[in-house]
Specification:
- By secondary structure, this protein is an alpha/beta fold.
- The chain has nine helices and six strands.
- Strand 4, helix 8 (173-181) and strand 5 form a beta-alpha-beta unit.
- The radius of gyration is 17 Å and the shape is globular.
Length: 217
């Protein structure tokens, strides 16, 4: 059994609940284009990059846009999203996350972020979590979106820890797939039916500490 030395966290839906703001921003874009878009469809955007998300929304109604128009739409979406998250604070953190991060630090685990969001560093700074992370890899650092394991591999390299000694925390099927492709252990955050390829699934971090990692692995 390989000892766990580090953890890599996805951001949206794992550390902080910003998914609702992404949904609101994308919904505005879809509405302006006359495209039907709801929470169920939004689930398909979990772990997906901005341009890939826009392509998916456009495909729902077979809408075609030029590359320039797509960049403009994606920029509008991001600007709307940034306005929505401008005043977020630690109340947006998922239950138990802060206690778990504290316990990881106390027990000398290394911690990285592995997110497709290009706003990850801004969000961590806004909620004053950046000091917890030994490495932050986000959409600005990668060229391939999940389920490609690039973001987690880069996190592993930045930490100097082998994937076999790292646990990834993910809430999206594509994120779980990326972790497993990269040779990482993966704990899914959410419902088992959506994360069946994870090594272990839990609904959140309440009462979850580093000793529980040892119990699982």
């Amino acid at each position: 059994m390989n000892a766990i030395k580090a953890c890599i966290f996805d951001l949206d839906g794992v550390i902080i609940d910003t998914a609702k703001y992404h949904f609101k921003a994308w919904s505005e874009i879809a509405e302006n284009l006359g495209i039907q878009f709801d929470q169920k469809l939004n689930e398909n955007l979990k772990g997906v990059g901005r341009m890939e998300s826009l392509d998916y929304i456009l495909s729902l109604a077979n809408v075609t846009k030029s590359d320039e128009e797509k960049i403009e739409l994606a920029t509008t979406k991001n600007n709307n999203y940034l306005k929505l998250i401008a005043n977020i604070d630690r109340k947006e953190l998922l239950n138990g996350v802060l206690s778990f991060l504290d316990d990881l630090k106390k027990n000398n685990f290394l911690i990285a972020l592995g997110s497709s969001s290009k706003n990850a560093k801004l969000i961590l700074d806004t909620v004053q979590l950046s000091p917890y992370f030994d490495a932050i890899i986000d959409g600005n650092d990668t060229t391939h979106s999940k389920p490609d394991p690039e973001v987690f591999i880069k996190g592993s390299v930045a930490l100097g820890v082998s994937p076999k000694n790292i646990v990834v925390f993910e809430d999206a099927p594509k994120g779980v797939e990326a972790a497993k492709k990269g040779g990482f252990k993966c704990i899914g955050i959410g419902e088992w039916k959506n994360l069946i390829h994870a090594d272990y699934v839990m609904d959140g971090f309440s009462n979850f500490l580093t000793k529980d990692l040892a119990r699982i692995y």
